[in-house]
Specification:
Blueprint (H helix, E strand, L loop, with lengths): L1 E3 L20 E6 L5 E5 L17 E5 L12 H4 L61 H5 L7 H4 L19 E3 L4 E2 L12 E5 L2 H27 L6 H22 L6 E5 L1 H8 L16 E7 L7 H12 L8 E7 L4 H24 L6 H5 L14 H48 L35 E2 L2 E2 L2 E6 L27 E6 L10 H16 L4 E6 L3 E2 L4 H9 L7 E5 L4 E2 L12 H11 L12 E4 H4 L8 E4 L5 E4 L22 H4 L3 H13 L27 H10 L23 H11 L3 E4 L7 E4 L4 H19 L14 H12 L3 H18 L9 H25 L3 H15 L2 H15 L33 H22 L6 H17 L1 H7 L8 H21 L8 E3 L2 E3 L1
Parallel strand pairs: 9-10, 9-15, 10-14, 17-22, 18-23
Antiparallel strand pairs: 1-4, 2-3, 2-4, 5-6, 7-8, 11-12, 13-14, 15-19, 16-23, 17-19, 20-21, 24-25
Amino acid sequence: MATSSGARKQSSSMGGAGDRPPQSVKFARRTSSGRVVSLSRDDDLDLPEEYAAQNDYINYTVLMPPTPDNQPGGTSNSTNAAGDKPDGPIPYRAPSTRFRSESQRIRMGSHGGDEDGGSGVAAGKLDRRMSVMKSNNKSMLLRSQTQDFDHNRWLFETKGKYGIGNAFWQQEEDSYDRDTGMSMQDFLDKPWKPLTRKIKIPPEIISPYRLLIMLRMVVLAFFLAWRLRNPNHDAMVLWGLSVTCETWFAFSWLLDILPKFNPINRSADLAALKDKFESPSPTNPNGRSDLPGVDVFISTADPEKEPPLVTSNTILSILAVEYPVEKVAVFISDDGGAILTFEAMAEAVKFGEVWVPFCRKHNIEPRNPDSYFSQKTDPTKNKKRPDFVKDRRWIKREYDEFKVRINGLPEVIRKRCEMYNKNEEMREKKLIREKNDGVLPPDQKVEVTKATWMADGTHWPGTWFKSCADHSKGDHAGILQIMSKMPESDPKMGGPDEGKLDFTGIDTRLPMFAYVSREKRPGYDHNKKAGAMNALVRASAVISNGPFILNLDCDHYIYNSMALREGMCYMMDRGGDRICYIQFPQRFEGIDPSDRYANHNTVFFDGNMRALDGLQGPVYVGTGCMFRRYALYGFLPPRSNEYSGVFGRNKAPAKNIQPQSDEEEPLTGHPELNLPKKFGNSSMFTDSITVAEFQGRPLADHISVKNGRPPGALLAPRPPLDAPTVAEAIAVISCWYEDKSDWGDRVGWIYGSVTEDVVTGYRMHNRGWRSVYCITKRDAFRGTAPINLTDRLHQVLRWATGSVEIFFSRNNAFLATPRLKFLQRVAYLNVGIYPFTSLFLVVYCFLPALSLFTGQFIVQSLNIAFLCYLLIITVVLTLISLLEVKWSGIALEEWWRNEQFWVIGGTSAHLAAVIQGLLKVIAGIEISFTLTSKSANEDEDDIYADLYIVKWTSLFIVPLTIIIVNLVALVMGAARTVYSVIPQWSKLFGGAFFSFWVLAHMYPFCKGLMGRRGKMPTIIYVWAGLISITVSLLWITISPPQGSNSSVSGGELKT
């Protein structure tokens, strides 16, 4: 094998060079005819002109394969000289306690020897290092290493079966000697590769996009100025309302479009991640995984609205994720404390013992069994094992039985509880008879509490079916059950099993899985989902302490088994220590093909979020997000900037960043680490903070990596769980733990809003952290969304109400710190302001009707100036939308559906959110929301049956009024124009076009009211009649008849 001398200048410092015989170094020169001339370094280089060109020689070193005469594993190479140290840092070994904060015990940057005397290399192990002679000339090989193609494979000695230099490559074996395991690949000098890269939008798309935005801003300014200078004196009310609404629309459009100035794409290199963290190296000779741990959080609250089967499938997809098993820990938070969820999770873990190895054996995607077996594609595609069909048939039968057990759990639990309660009643009667000489008094009633029983015959400590003290949803003890223990660090290979699956050579381990239900007591504010997530943060810190946390809803499962690795590429790349979270886009299943109510929301997830990624990062949307644990604890990033001046153009390093004297050590000297007021009074939890911070750093394998950790620091296995650890974990999920601490205020998920996700992400950005948007080729996660109109509007109502709360709180972007970029501040400002657009949108939707009723228009006349402005604004907006569709990858139909639902939601849910938000701020009326039902559709014949169900809600009133008023106005406007002496056709066309624009946006709403077969509920007719009568009376009041003898004659209206 050979390598260039310039590619590895510092390898000459590695041990063993002085004991090895000098290598012969040759120079080679290829002539123009293709002939190769080899010369010794000591030869006379007096050559003809053809060979005399400088810097054209290849300087390389030949390493001979092991032979009886050449044994590089001799005693001279097995040990270093006295005083020498190993090449890399010693692997990380856990201290005697689970978490120790002293830097002396977890110092990872030292280069000490081994316990056997510091030999550094075990005796008899081959020395795989080599010395390369230095050269002043850069070789052609070095210059070629910047390319993607690996030329080393073809330039020098090969791994061919029939001798050195053969072009036939062996596929499975790359060793010279099977016994020694000496591989030629071990000697390749691999260049440092980044794990991720930014992909900018092509200039031919983004430059016109930005230019058109600037053009529309200028045209809007001129148009609004023209509107102010040309009032309609015949209809000042119409003119004033329209100008006010148009000014607000221009302002809200600016808030929405400005953060889109710099959209970017990203890509991750999974091969580089594996090569850097899981390949053999001097610091990791066995090729163990050096990746940091990940704790996965799933939240659920009500098994009736969030079925256990859906949650179980999510759990199974997580247990089968492609990530080192010993580095994954899964926690589910059951905020309802339901025994149904508890026993369903136990069944899921039991089924996972065969499902997870099956997925690993056959590389199954997706690894949610329900989604996998529901696919309409050929299951045998790209499957190479001959036993796949047999295995799939067997696992499908097992899954069907698993579903039967899950669906039958409610009845099983009910019968069990009835049996145990009857036994308790009989035991109580027996005691009474014993006290009364074997006679049961007829007047004495036997009352036994109807308890909920576990399978082992003990009382369930959580919520009972019949609530009572200490056993209700708001009053029960904390529960922590480890259902799958911490796996061993070494793979546990399966074997053949008669009648079942053959898992020979397949790792059968499962990640650790824990069921958690925090303690709830009357008198304590439980803070809903945010409080449950903070309880999981503390419990997981004590048990597993993964430096990264993946947050998923119970109905969002892992669709791409490599999703964790994709996110880890960004966290472990250069500069990854400044990233607080990785947000993945939300993708949904079960949506109707036309996406009537814009459930996919691709304009937001593929447009707005991709644009924010070019600023300080996307917002946190509540699920599908990988957090840095250290950032959740409220600490500042290791490096940050402050922005000042006009539009934040002045950038300077941020102050008050905690200094670190030695970046190779964990951050143990932070002044806030020992404050119980900040994190509570658990010393074990406080000790875990420094460990999580250190383990979450990227590798310090390049001079440009700052605040990194040495390679090989995370090779030691996690310590096993013990009783004191579990007891501490139960203590940190108690209801009183957060008292007089910063949890929910500065630490963890932030309390005080129904949209705690947006507020939590905003707080991190406000401290100077950055976030990343990770769009994978195969969707990372998939979930469900409500396709029913009523459910969809209530979902939008919840989001909009949270935005109103943000606007009236201290989390308003107006009050942000200088560490928040200007355009990022604009984006968060838009998050808090967008619901208020509904006030102007509702008024604007009634304007065409008022125009048709009165025979006037928003302008004096449809003159050339107005039409030109309208045409330019419309054309420019269309071009902007087309370019936005181009760089975001969304379809035009999706863009139009988003526009339609923006009007529907703006005139219904957003308006109600503003009213509710104002009531909360002014009157202190609290807002409560019910969970969105995630139940699977019971109609197997029509998976979209829920789409046609009409559930009346007060949110329908305003959109329905707008539709009816505009329809009535069209008829009245047309009748007036036709029968008038001098028809005002231009005003009719203007009002009619305006009205049709409103009705076109309301089309999905009308279609949703029609139900499955066009049948409209009776309540709709009632409201339509009431609104029609109200509009008629209003019109008579505004424009009463002048006399009682009015008639129509000769096309002229006479009075």
